[in-house]
Structures are given as C-alpha cells and as structure tokens.
Hints:
The structure holds two protein chains of two kinds.
Chain A lengths: L1 E5 L11 H4 L14 H21 L3 E4 L13 H11 L4 E4 L11 H14 L3 E4 L5 H7 L7 H17 L4 E4 L4 E5 L13 E5 L3 H10 L2 E4 L4 H4 L1 H13 L9 E9 L3 H19 L15 H17 L12 H6 L5 H6 L3 E4 L1 H14 L4 E5 L7 H19 L28 H5 L1
Parallel strand pairs in A: 1-2, 1-11, 2-3, 3-4, 4-7, 7-8, 8-9, 9-10, 9-11
Antiparallel strand pairs in A: 5-6
Helix pairs in contact in A: 2-15, 3-4, 4-6, 7-9, 14-15
Chain B lengths: L4 E7 L2 E8 L4 E5 L10 H7 L3 E5 L17 H14 L5 E6 H13 L4 E7 L22 H5 L3 H8 L9 H17 L18 E6 L8 H9 L4 E6 L6 H4 L1 H11 L2
Parallel strand pairs in B: 3-4, 3-5, 5-6, 6-7, 7-8
Antiparallel strand pairs in B: 1-2, 2-4
Helix pairs in contact in B: 1-9, 2-3
Amino acid sequence: MKFLWFHLMPYKELPDDFRQKHPSVWVDIHSSLFDPQRAHRMYNEFFDELEYAALCGFDAICCNEHHSNGYGLMPSPNLVASALARRTTDTAICVLGNSLALYNPPTRVAEEFAMIDCISGGRLIAGFPVGTPMDTTYAYGVNPSQLRERYHEAHDLVLRAWTEKETFAFNGRFNQQRYVNIWPRPIQQPHPPIWIPGAGSVETWRWAAEMDYVFCYLSYYGYKMAQNVMRGFWEEMARLGKDRNPYRAGFAQVVGVAESRQQALDLYTEPAEYFYGRCLHVDVRFAGPPGYVTEATQRAGIESQVKIAAQGTAPSAPSTNAASAQKMQSLARDMQGIVDNGYVIVGSPDEVVEQLRELATTLNIGQLMLMMQFGNMATDLAKYNTRLFAEKVMPKLRSLHTEWENRWWPQPMDRRQRATLPAFIPAAAAE
Amino acid sequence: MNEPETTTVDVNGFPMRVWRKGRGPVIGFLAGYGGLPRWVPFLDRLAQTRSVVVPSLPGFPGGERGHSVLDSHLDWVLAARTLIDKAGLAGADLVGSSVGGSFAAEVAAIWPEKVKRLALIAPFGLYDAKDPATDPWAQRPDDIPGLMTADPDVYRRLKEIPSGANSIEWPIEQSRAAEASARIFWPLGNTRLERRLPLISAPTLILWGERDRLMPRSYAAAVARAISGRAETSIIAGAGHLAELDKPDEVAAAIVGFMV
Lengths: 431, 260
C-alpha cells in the first residue's frame, strides 16, 4: 500500500458569510477576498506541511492544478513541485497534474516535468487530468467542444517529446511544431509514471487501461460514495482482460485522526465544515459547459437515471455523470452529515485503520491519497494529524496489497549517485 | 399545418436535414441558438407566399455530429457555403437568425453572388467590450428559455420532447446544439464578423427583438453601419433574442415586405 499526502492549498480566510454573500468559490470569486500578504504566510505553511509529510515517511507528496479557485492556490503545480524537489530527498513527487489542453504549446508540460524529474533525481509522478469545466473552459477559455480532442493530442505530443530520440515535426490537428526536441529530458525511462485523475467516465477508464496508466478517482466525498464508481472501474478492467492489481487505482480520502473519536470531532469539525461549506461552494452556472461531457457519458447517465426511476430506488451517491459543481451543491455541509456520509474519516488511530482497510479492500485501491490539511485547518493541527497518521495508522496498513507489484511508481536514480542537498536552516544559522 | 418535405444533403460526410415547404420565390432560413428540433409557425408564415428551404447547420438538430469535424471558423463558413449550394439556395434570398444569422452574413459577404437579399435577426459574431453579449453557456438550465425568447414558454415548447420521441436521444440532440454553438463561438461569441460586414452588398434587413437579453441592441446599429449595401433596421416589439419564435407574424411580415 502506498500513502500519498495531498495538499489542495486552500485559501484559509474566506469570510463566515461566504456562502450567503458570494455566488462561487471558483471562476468569478472576488479579488477583494484575497490578501497577498496573508497568502504569503499560507503558502509557506503549506510548503512546511508538505515537507513535514515527507519527513514523517509518506511515500509521496502531491499537488494539483486549479485556476481562479479559492480552495486551490496552485495555478502552477510545477512551481510547487520544483520547490519540493529541492527540500526533500526520497519522497516521490506527485503532480496531479498538468491539464494538458491548457498549455500552448503542450511541449511546455514535457519540458517542465522533465525538469522536475531531473531536479528530483527521478522522483516524479506525472499526472494528466483533462481538468474541470471551471478551470479549463471558464477560467482558461478552452473550447469545451474541443477540450478532449486537444487533451488527447497534447498527450500524444508530450509522450513523443519524451521518448523520440531525434528532433521531429508534429503535424497535429490543433498543434503544429516544426522542431520538437525538448531539453532537458526525463531521468525515468521511457518516461515518468503517468497517472490520470478523473471521474466516472467509461472512456477515461478504457483509455487509462489501454495505455497502462493509473486511474485516480479524486472525490471529496469519501469511500462510501465511491463504491459505484470503483465497481464500474474494476468491472471495465475485467471486461478488458486486465488484472485486479490495486495499484492501477488511486483514491483521495479526507482523514482526521486524534487520540479518540470525540477528540477528532472536536478538532476537525471546523476545518471540515469550512471545506464542505465554503470551499465547495460553486455556482451551477459553471457546472456544465456544452460538450464537456461526451455524448456516450451523457447517454449512460440518462440510461441509469431511467433505470433508477424504473426500480424506484434512490442512488447511493450523486450521479457519477452529474457535473462536479452540481454535485457540490447537493452536499452535506454540517459535521454530522459530513461524517455520516463518509466524506471525512475521523476517529482514533485504530478506528481510522479499520475504515481505511475497508476503503482499500472494497474499492481495491493501492495508491491511497490522503487529504490531511483541509479547509482552514491550522498548520499545527495539520502536522499533528500527519504525524499521528504516520506513526499509528500507516504501519498497520503497510502490508495491504503487498502481493501485487506496483508497476506505476517512480524509479529514481541510485541514492548514492544523487546530489546532496545543502542544509538550509536560516533560523538555526542566525542563533 | 401540413408537414414540410424532408431530404438530406451531405456536408463533410454527415447528412444535413433540409426542410422545404410552400410555393413562390425561394427563401432560405438558417436557424438560431438551439436550432430547430421541430417545425415552427414562423416558417409557415413565410411559406404562405414563398418557397421556404431550411437546411440544418452541422451539430444542430438535423445536423447530426457534423460539428465534430469543424475545427476553425473557415471550416464552419465553408460548411455553410456547401449547405447553401446543396440545398439549392445559391442566388436566393436568405434569412438567418442568431447563430444562423452569423453564417448568412458570412456567406453574403464572401460570396456575394450567392445571396440576393439578406435578413439578419440578431446575429452572433460580434463583441463589444463596452456592451458585452450575455454568456449563453454559463447559465442555470432554468434561465436559458428566458434568455432565448421573451416568453420563456415559447422556447420551452420548442425544446419539449414530442410524444413518441426517443427519451434518451432527444435531450442529447438538444445539448449537442448548445455544444455546436459553443464550438463556433466560445468563449465571447466573437468571430470578428465586423471585418467581413463591409463586403455585404445585398440589400439587408436587420431585425432585433425589442427585449433581446442576449445580444445587445447596440449591435444592430453596428451591423447597419458596417454593411455596404442598402440596410434597414426593424425592432420587433415584445420579442426576445429569437424574435421569429416570439413574434412569427411580425418577423415574417417584415421580411416578406422587405424582399418584394
């Protein structure tokens, strides 16, 4: 079992009446809510937390890409990853990822990921999300009717840029480049492991399987709500003749651990309610740009609604085909609902172990991403959560899935050949 | 109200539906945002004195997934030209509304011999930062009808699933129409049409719904100023963006009166 520590880098000081006064945390969130000097402190605390997670023994630290977003201050995850590469030694660096269609030319992604791979000595996991509607079509203005075509073409270009030995011309439908020849080139051969964050789209599952990539379901709604999606994923793998290797799949889970369940509730209620109440407050106007959801996925969604109506049963989770912003509008926002629905796993170390064991076995997940700083959580609490997890939870779950080979993990350079990082302790030096 | 005759013509390997009805001099119609999932009263009004020909634009109802192979604005304009030719509309009078109005204007500008007289109903293709058009692709679903027609029920009835229609494919066809419009005009609706408008030499009638909440009325004057041919403007009282749906009699009468 692999443990990845995932930061969203939320802006931590959205006002108490944010939901009442502001239509959306995303796309048109008002600039007056952003204080750059407060953000200076937040960014530096967030880096501390990521580095601390590495120190505590997490297998990877993760960042991702969002734009015009009050709960994700990482329009450029590569800036974060490159800083982390200089302040960590053995931890994998997981960028989940670069939304390929947003880079012009897409070879920018091949270059920057190759840089991070070189700087880190081959520790990069390269994530390629299509990107949410809010990020890609609204904030960045990409045509929703061309987004997926552009994404797939950019993927092909990046892969060729990494693997072809000679300078080549790329004659794509959307991208034409006479001279493709990236410098630097990645350490990991033929290229860093590729992970695909996505939702419940059959097309994405098929494509990830065909390319032999990891599929990551980045839900904020916990493992109970994810059962249908992951069951569908593994059924599709079976249909395609793929094995049930749990390392094919990643899942993100919000976790708060403490000495007891009551203490966990006392500590994590405020940040959890901040996250589900303010961070996931997205205007439904930005839910479904036409063309973002493919017709095959629309068809599957309508057919399953018809089936559900005919059976008279309520769905156990928000429809996997509903646009993410619509999903967000129907969420529980009080701690009782947040915990009862399983969005957040809270409890004593042993209680968290049991729930994560259930998660890892029922969803069949080998790459477990943990969101342990969420909402407006103070940095001390984030570190407490991280350390307690590393000491009391991780060891008891380590042996899960060890019968399978994780073929999708970075292959860094031999430790002895890697550069030594100089000590950087300005506080100590000043004493 | 008897049914129109329906045929198809090929555009880039996709069959485009063409409706025909009425007698008299030929007049073409290119539909607006959302397309025409069903025949509408406005076309019957035209068909009383004219032979109406209604080809579907790629991706709009009757246009299958023809939009999926159109990547640039040139691709779209050439598809519109092919449609006009294959539907037998070359040299005839041409009416275009909204999205279709943009292509009617393009064809009249670039191939003047193909359009005898032109009527444009609140065409897409322009953008004025001081008076921006509403974003039709960032709306709550319930707000769309009121943005398209002054009486929201008019647009709702246009899009309502007919009894006996496929309950899965019908809604997909409607969302495909929204996608096709986005594929052409995302994100601002601006195709720099104003650069081609001076090439229009055909006599042109510009129509605008008095209550158009999508395309600003100031664009009507901009269009009238830019085109080289004789231009008249008519504001349709009580009509929204798709004025021909709100006020079929008034819009049809204005067009027929202009094109005598």
